[in-house]
Amino acid sequence: MRKYIVILFCLFICLSIEGQARTFSPTRNNATLLGEDAQIFVLTCTPGTEVWSKYGHTAIRIYDSAQNLDIIFNYGIFSLMEEGFYLKFIKGETYYQLGIESHSHFQHVYSKIGRKTYWQELNLSLQQKQEIYDALILNYQPKNRYYLYNFVFDNCATRPYYLIKNVLKDSIQSSYQGAINQPYRSTISHYTGHNSWVDFGINMVFGSKADQPMNNEQRLFLPEELMFYLSQATLADGTPLVKDQYIQPFQVAPVPWYANCWLGLTIFALMLIAISIWDRKRNKLSLWIDITLGVVYVILFSIVIFLTFFSSHPLVGFNWRLFLLPIIHLCARLIYIIR
Known about the structure:
Elements (H helix, E strand, L loop, with lengths): L1 H12 L25 E7 L11 E8 L4 E9 L7 H7 L3 E8 H10 L4 E6 L3 H15 L5 E3 L9 H10 L5 E2 L9 H9 L4 H9 L17 H9 L1 E2 L7 E5 L14 H22 L4 H24 L13 H14 L2
Antiparallel strand pairs: 1-2, 1-5, 2-3, 3-4, 4-6, 5-9, 7-8
Helix pairs in contact: 1-2, 6-7, 9-11
């Protein structure tokens, strides 16, 4: 039962999970010195069709032809085979890790599944490139590569950003407004699809914290926001942070009319109304439907209660949307109750 509850929760809340547990062991070590022509890129992958890939993904590419080096640093690696993974995920105690793989393999995997990869070459001095590379190699050491994943505060997009920012000594400024002052809820809904069933599920488990506006950096947990933030970023002296780039806005697929959650809820209400009318005519209550739906409500409330009080997942909590199904149910059954 616990496994299925986690799967349900994953469908609702899992962000930017790039679950291919693949790594590439570099032949270099901390002493590797990058050449004058070395390049560092921030890569942004477009959304996929699966729920967990709808937000895109961010990675860092290090390219140095002189050192025969062309590798990807990917902060989105996790393993479902980890002991106690499901319970840890529910409690918000899932550890992700930094993985390294060849750029050719990374590109092959994403192109094979139809996801584009945009790139931004950072405008850095050789010393800054070296510091970023050394920091990534240090992060990749066994004792450092694992980190406590957090849905909006520590993920595959925030890790590269804060690493770069730390090397540049907090000198990054950007004129990109994007999702500044927009609430988490509506911004996340943009990627999941407004009024989709995934959106409906997320809104059921998100509490009032999800309606708080995001500040300048809080929105950068979203790969697309980070991409455009970097595209208009400058250093303290006015130098553009990005030297060259190929980027485009994400194309978010519209929700088909038949997958609209409000259509489904309308059908749900009409079915309950029809059952209530039938029950009234035969003067007998179809108790099985009320018991079945009651069990569903108890499970949903139990999940939200646990996430709210016993897990460290951000944004979850009670909100009016959680009571929508029981209210529809009660209103439809009033046809039988009130005579």
